From TrEMBL:
Provenance organism: Rhizobium mongolense
UniProt keywords, alphabetically: DNA-binding, Transcription, Transcription regulation
InterPro entries: AsnC-type_HTH_dom, Dimeric_a/b-barrel, Tscrpt_reg_AsnC-like, Tscrpt_reg_AsnC/Lrp_C, WH-like_DNA-bd_sf, WH_DNA-bd_sf
Transmembrane segments: none
Residues annotated as domain HTH asnC-type: 9-70
A Gene Ontology BP annotation from the UniProt entry: response to amino acid
One family name in Pfam for this protein: HTH_24
GO cellular component, one term: cytosol
Protein name: Lrp/AsnC family leucine-responsive transcriptional regulator
One annotated GO molecular function: sequence-specific DNA binding
Length: 154
């Protein structure tokens, strides 16, 4: 979204987005109350936010540890010459990689990985290491969870 489009978010849109960021399952009635709108008006606002591509999905936040993945790591990946697409495919096809960004700088990818054990981590990294150099940092805590960017010029 272009910067000028973001500036067209009014305070009502901002309240809707803040409420959805806190709870994507909020009812339309509750969402309307948060924004001081009728339910049909809130639904129309939400539809427009989706049409503009501002709201892309309604999702859930899952705790990997509760699913048996107590360890998380950030892996910086630098593919060997000619292996960029192969490494990208390996990351995409390895379900323990739960997030990955292609970045500028010395590394080509920064990925988040969840595993059940250090042995599992070693196995996954060994598979990637055949085609890339990696640097891994274990996550101790996440003091900033995924959040909305600033919606207004504060």
């Amino acid at each position: 979204m272009a910067a000028n489009e973001a500036s067209r978010l009014d305070s009502i849109d901002q309240r809707l987005l803040d409420a959805l960021a806190q709870n994507a399952r909020i009812s339309l009635k509750e969402l309307a109350q948060v924004a001081n709108l009728s339910s049909p008006s809130a639904a129309e606002r939400l539809r427009r936010l989706e049409e503009r591509g501002i709201v892309k999905a309604f999702t859930i936040d899952i705790d990997p540890a509760a699913l048996g993945y107590p360890l998380q790591a950030i892996v910086r990946v630098r593919p060997l010459p000619g292996q960029l697409h192969v490494v990208e495919r390996i990351i995409q096809e390895t379900p323990e990689f739960i997030e990955c960004d292609k970045v500028t700088g010395d590394d080509c990818f920064i990925a988040r990985l969840v595993v059940r054990s250090m042995g599992e981590l070693d196995g996954i990294l060994d598979k990637v290491a055949e085609k890339a150099e990696t640097n891994t940092s274990m996550i101790k805590a996440s003091p900033v969870k995924r959040r909305l960017p600033p919606l207004s010029s504060r």
